[in-house]
Specification:
Blueprint lengths: L1 E14 L2 E3 L13 E9 L7 E11 L7 E6 L7 E5 L6 E3 L3 E3 L14 E9 L2 E9 L7 E8 L8 E6 L8 E7 L10 H8 L3 E7 L7 E4 L5 E11 H12 L3 E6 L8 E4 L2 E14 L5 H5 L2
Length: 294
């Protein structure tokens, strides 16, 4: 005899696309930062249920990196406690492709065709760089390359060595400047701020131009967009899952300028679905319990 028996079910809740803005903060914050969040929730048991989310933010580079991000328990117009951290450690500030040239040196170097194409990406704990040099008409010997602190149009001290030996053009220099780089130069909080504010430059030196043959200022894009995804699961989620259904959860992203929150978005449910699962078994009624465990 065959029987079809309900063996499991789960409830799924989807949420409207959630806009994040400073206007939703309590009190409101004036900012050009924005964001959108997607969220879905599965009820089930404390071991199987959970909320999955993805948040995309666009923030002005002047605001710096987020100092924290969380899901909070609180109704619209109120502030509530943190219930889940959101990991923003890979947030990045991007730069347009940059070309180093003699014209950017102080004073300008006008008798060279040497150049370098450069790409940079700034994280809270590192600067990733790739520099491809092109030799000049004289095939000049290049003696070193560094990062210096200094605004455009000014000269400043070396803060990190890229290469300290002779090399020629048509060379690729790539690497990562980190907070633990004790040999070539530490990346400090102050230097991260200097990079973010366009006050660090690349300098490539040569035998004939010891002070610098070609230079490029690191100037980031005015805004940067990042996406972070994650899940809120386990007993902590299960104890609060009804708060999602009642629209009492919100996303909050914090900055140094606005520690209480730069942008916020309330999670509002959209649809609710119950899915049932069945299993077909063969046997006599007394054996159903045993068959379900097979």
């Amino acid at each position: 005899v065959q029987y079809t028996v309900l063996v499991d079910s789960h409830q799924t809740m989807t949420f409207r696309t959630t806009p994040l803005s400073g206007a939703q903060e309590v009190p409101p914050v004036t900012t050009t930062a924005t964001g959108t969040a997607t969220l879905s929730l599965r009820g089930d048991s404390s071991s199987l249920g959970g909320a999955t989310y993805s948040v995309t933010t666009t923030t002005p580079t002047s605001a710096g990196f987020f100092t924290g991000a969380h899901i909070h328990n609180g109704a619209t117009g109120t502030n509530g406690g943190i219930v889940h951290p959101i990991n923003t450690v890979r947030q990045q500030i991007t730069f347009p492709p940059t070309t180093a040239s003699g014209a950017q040196e102080v004073p300008p170097v006008t008798n060279t065709t040497a150049s370098a194409t450069c790409t940079f990406t700034l994280y809270r704990d590192s600067l990733v760089f790739r520099i491809v040099t092109t030799k000049d008409q004289f095939d000049s010997v290049l003696t070193a390359s560094h990062f210096h602190v200094g605004a455009a149009g000014t000269n400043g001290p070396v803060v990190r060595t890229i290469i300290s030996r002779n090399f020629r053009g048509d060379t690729t220099l790539s690497g990562k400047w980190t907070r633990t780089d004790t040999t070539l130069g530490l990346l400090t909080d102050a230097l991260v701020d200097s990079i973010r504010n366009g006050r660090v430059y690349l300098n490539v030196h040569s035998v004939g131009r010891a002070s610098g043959l070609i230079r490029a200022q690191l100037v980031p894009n005015a805004t940067h967009t990042n996406t972070v995804s994650g899940a809120f699961t386990g007993g902590s989620f299960y104890a609060l899952k009804d708060q999602f259904a009642f629209s009492n959860m919100y996303f909050n992203f914090h900055t140094a300028a606005n520690p209480g929150g730069e942008i916020r978005g309330q999670a509002i449910p959209d649809t609710f679905t119950t899915n049932a699962y069945t299993k077909t078994i063969t046997g006599v009624p007394d054996s159903i319990g045993t068959a379900l465990n097979q």
